[in-house]
Amino acid sequence: MHSTRIDLAAKTRAKMIALLNARLADALDLQLQAKQAHWNVKGPSFIALHELFDRIAGEMGGHSDEMAERIAALGGIAEGTLQAIAGRSRLDPYPIEIADGRAHLDALAAGLSRFGKGVRKAIDEAAKAGDADSSDLFTGISRAADKSLWLLEAHLQADR
Fold first, then answer.
1. Which of 69, 73, 95, 137 is the most buried (most CB within 10 A)?
2. What is the pLDDT of residues 11-58, one digit of tens each?
3. What's the structural domain count of the chain?
4. In angstroms, rounded to a whole number, what is the distance separating the alpha carbons of residues 65 and 27?
5. Is 80 among the domain residues?
């Protein structure tokens, strides 16, 4: 770890760096999944879904930046390479063969749900470790992820 004057113990910083890198991998994976959907969606709701998926990808990019910058502030190295993401992401692989809008909605909602669950767990882990700032960062990301999930699920709930 790089030195910093942030007044968290080195052990706490190391734990938070690992936690942030784990959720960073999920966010980057989800960003790519949303782009996959954005590029390949077909069907009568094409433009609405195309734009929604791009919005979600952009938001995940923003969350990734926030987590990566927190890692750097804590003296760590943000591990955002494809190899790091592939080895660390806890999201299910995205089905690349789908085109139908509803199938993309289902797949992205599943990924976003799993991402949100991991972020909510990270809120508690960071708070328990004594890093209120990382916990707060995760809280903001959780709130945004829940909103994005709502936007996806609103399309799916219309048929029920």
1. 137
2. 999 999 999 999 999 999 999 999 999 999 999 999 999 999 999 999
3. 1
4. 10
5. yes
Neighbours of 40 (CB within 10 A): 15
Q: CA 76, 130, 134, 145 torsion: positive or negative?
A: positive
Name the β-bridge partners of 42. 100
Identify the H or E element spanning 144: helix 132-157
pLDDT band at 160 (very low <50, low <70, confident <90, very high): low
Pair 65, 23: CB distance under 8 Å: no
Domain membership of residue 5 (yes or no) is no
Burial of 54 per CB tally in 10 Å (0-12, 13-18, 19+)? middle
Instruction: Establish if 105 belongs to a structural domain.
Output: yes
Residue at 73 is within a domain: yes
**Which DSSP symbol is given to 100?**
B
- Whole domain around residue 62: which residue ranges? 10-157
